[in-house]
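fwd from M.: "can u put these together and see what the complex looks like"

so here's what she sent:
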Amino acid sequence: MARKRRRGGNRNRSSRNRTNRRGRDRGNAFWGDPDRLPDPITDLKIADEPAAVVHSLGPPPLQGRDAIAEHYFTLVYDRITMVSGAVAGAAGMIEVEDLIEQVSDEDWDVDDSSDDGGEDEDDATW
Amino acid sequence: MTYEKRRDLAQAELDGWLDEAGLARLRADQQGWIEVLEALQRTAEKNLAHVRSTVHGPERRLVLEDFEADRDRIAERLASLRGDAATKDSGKDSGKDGSKGGSSANEPKSGRRRGAEPKAAEPEPVVDELAGTGTAQLQLSWGEGTLIAWGGGMHADNDDLDTLRGRLSMLGAPAAAWTECDPIPLPDGSHAPAVSTQLSSVLGWLVALQTTAGDPFVGASASWMALVAALGVRLAARGRVVPQLSTDRGRGNGGRSDARVSWAAGLVDRTQLRTLSRAMPGVVTVARSQRDPLLVTLSLLDATTDTICRQAAAMVEVPAAPTRANSSPQLAEVVLAHLNGTTVSGQTRDVQEMHKALRRWARTVMGEQHVRLVMEMDAPDDGEAWELRVLASIGRGNLLPVEAAMSQANQTRRQRILRELERLERTYGKLKRGRIRGEVVLNQNEAWQLMSVEGRKLLDQGFDVRVPLLQKRKARIGLRVTAVEEHRIEDEGEKRSANDLHNVIWSVMLDDVEVDADEIRRLASESRPMVRSHGRWVEVDHADLAAAAEALTEREAHSRMSGADMLRYALGLEESPLGDVSIAGQSWATQLLESASDLPEDPPTEMDGFDGELRSYQAHAAAWLDFLDQAGLGGILALDMGLGKTPTLLAHLTTSRHRGPALAIVPPAVAGNWAREAERFTPDLEVVVHHGPNRAGLDELPRIAEKADLVITTYGTAVRDIEGLEHVRWGKVVLDEAQVIKNHTSDTAKQLRRLEAHSKIALTGTPIENGLGDLWALLDFANPGLVGKRTPFISQLGKDGGAKDTGPEAALRTLNGVLVFRRTKAEPAIAAELPERIDELDLCAMTVEQVGLYQAVLDELVAKQSEQSDDNKGAVLAAITALKQICNHPAAYTGDDGPLDDRSGKLLRLTEILDNIFQVGERALIFTHFATWGDRLSKHLTERYGRQIDCYHGGLSRGARDAMVEKFQASTEPGAMVLSLKAGGTGLNLTAASHVILYDRWWNPAVEDQARDRVWRIGQTRTVVAHRLVCPGTVDERVEEVVQGKRRIADMVLPKSSSIGDLNSDQLRQALGLDTSLLLTEDDD
């Protein structure tokens, strides 16, 4: 009996610890753990050609309004990068001076030595 | 005693003002005392918990510290009463607890034992400050399109509305944006009062919270939402957003539906998205039904991009258009006119079709399933064919050519790859001409375009581009001359020399790529010539190739040259039409340059025979001198004034003494200094000072020199004794202050060229005073003929170091490390190593006029003394003053108005020092304690240098003196100011100067220190050089000895127990007379 009690005691204590941990984990899952959050974004880049992505999709399905759509998109995307830059500047994601003329050369220096071909798209960085 | 009374006494004891009687009453009932303390402890804990949750802002820390101190004091008193040390510790631990007091869940076991005591309260576990610590924080939840704020935390009371608004205000949130909304239901059954707002009202504030992870006032939910919003901002900034049509999904109003343009995030990095969604706190979704972290993350991301894009679209002026469409074309027009998200309406069928069509159109870049294609280009082994391939992965495996990837992928992924490939082909049309899909061969021009311009655009469009690195600038072009065969003028077996003739071939360098004439022709035929240099591709200019071809043709006939010729090319001393010329092959010049580049990075700072430690730049200089010595070359050691040229050279002599004796030719003012420094640093060297009337005769010179390691002489003596000196085979000839020979046609320069030596070294801080001709004169002395003729030397170096650069310094840099070793105090690495102040003693010669006057004054004094007048003491002091004036300048004593030049060795030395100071653009203060002489001196210097050099003295008005100081401090030009030691010695701040020249000496060293301190004080950022001018063998030197503490003033002139008036003639002559063994005269120069 004593042995059982001892086992039971051990199990109970262990179980209580697990319960506490689970409870704590649940608490963390709900309230969140600051240590698990990714790093802040501080290296924001402004696109050289803001409408490049949307133009790569081809003409939008807007019933023959392709030309005007391309024109509007170009104007709107220019403003989009402008507004984004302003928000980013106010939030400290980018130096205000960089907004004036930012060149994303760092992105572009792709090292040709990385020819392993095995890089998963998940790992692709830019 | 009542409980209240006991409590008051206990509190008074805690506060430290309880008297003995009160303390006795407490001690009489120690258990009761403990009980009231425990009650006080509980109260303190409660107060502390309340403060923690309610007090914020800058005063929080102070308030908390006060309450914690109260609590700790009670715990300590309890511990001492219980006699349990562990309790004391636990008391502190418990201080971080919540309101229930006592020990914590984490306290030591000894603390738990205390829990068995009948009166001790068992504590409840409470956790500390951050999430789950009992402290309320700002929490943000994502409702259905709205942002909800509330205050709470694990085990913490929820904020009421006022507290919540205060919290938002404290965190900088726009106050007016928030409206009260339904309370937030929490897992513990409670409801937290909440406020909500549109994301557009607070986006900037929210994004700024992205750096708050771990902030005690901001919950992880708020930090997380900020991070997602920041990602949305980043995507929008890169144009990674696409317009979509959001519909009301219902039919109504006669088959019409409302819709609006919404802007979705595109090309979202999957890893980033998953990392964020995995970290999402549950708090975020507490107010919504859809709680899938990935979808919630995407929802907030899209809301962020939508907010930004709608605001941006609203800034674009478009023609006014109705919001109601009755046909599909009309709907397209209406949608385009309302990209700002205004609600529009159309036929339900049209709306639904457009919604689907836009989704199909953009799906390849939307959501988390985006397939990232890789464009990979290899450089050709030969020719111009650059192979470009498109690769894709079919999961987490290796990248495959896109065709193969599509054949192996499942249907869904195949479609995704195909759509992305179509997008790529649309963007990069050259892919369409390949026979195999996703593969194409590019020509050189196309490859360059991809590497330089198009690749960047493709990256922005979400494709991965892996191409060889391209240098942004074009290739630097230069010539190379290679020695291919050696023809020895001298006997075989001898070392290579500068005169060896070599067969050479010429080639062209494009960066580090050597090309011959054939290769140049081939490159010139290409549309976009490129070469690979240092692993990067570099474009070559067609014009450069044409110039290279022409240069090679011109040099075909120039197929033989000497080692010296090659060195001149390598040093940029010969003209080249194609920039720099490099040299290669086996030759004297290449070996020399290799040796120069192989100098040790950390040469030793200590060496055998040198009694001291060199500074690191001095050690480098000594290593460079060793290199010259090995090569049998001469050079210029061009250390700035004060950087220690003499000890550096002496250090080098310890390693090169085997070459034979060294001859140091120096200005008379520094001859004594050389001897002293040699004695101090290199006591083992046999040093002979060869100057003065008692010097060795010409016949004796070779024999004396052979026994010596170092012979020190002056320029004047060297020229006079050149017949003897030239017969000595010197290991080294050193010219100190070598600018003396900058005029190569001067007699001194010509005579000194007669000296033969294994190596000749010129020491100077200012190798270029008037122009590059000065530099040529020094180099041609050090290495006769090696640097070519004077005119082409000046022309070639002047071209490289022209006005656009810093001129002389640029020329010195060209030669630095080979024939010149240049270091300046302005170099940060040098400045960091220097002491704050360098003291230099300059010994000055006496002119014949000075010696004559000096002797006359002394004779008169002796004559007066023999008359035994009553005022002997006054006469002696007057004579000392007169003698000091004569040392300064005869005119300072006589007061004559004659010209000052060529009458005083001290004035001559002063101008030499000022020449050097002005040459390097610095400023100096000149102190004298003779005000009249100072005034005279300033006028003389003003005239000599053509710049105003003021005299600051006590006779000026306060305003004039202030203006003078202000003007001096404000100027950044080279300049100087003369100051009377008495008026200028205190209270002035003259840190614009970095040199102090003590023209004459004062008995009290403190007075001189004060003078130096005008410059060497707070605000001074440079090393200060203090020069002391002294005429050796005169009363001047005896003052110097007094100042140096070597004798007392009285000792200078008086035997013990004597007075000035008691001195006899001999004593006077001994005290004040000229010591001819030490005296420097103009004859020496």
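replying to her w this: DSSP finds 42 helices and 32 strands in chain B.
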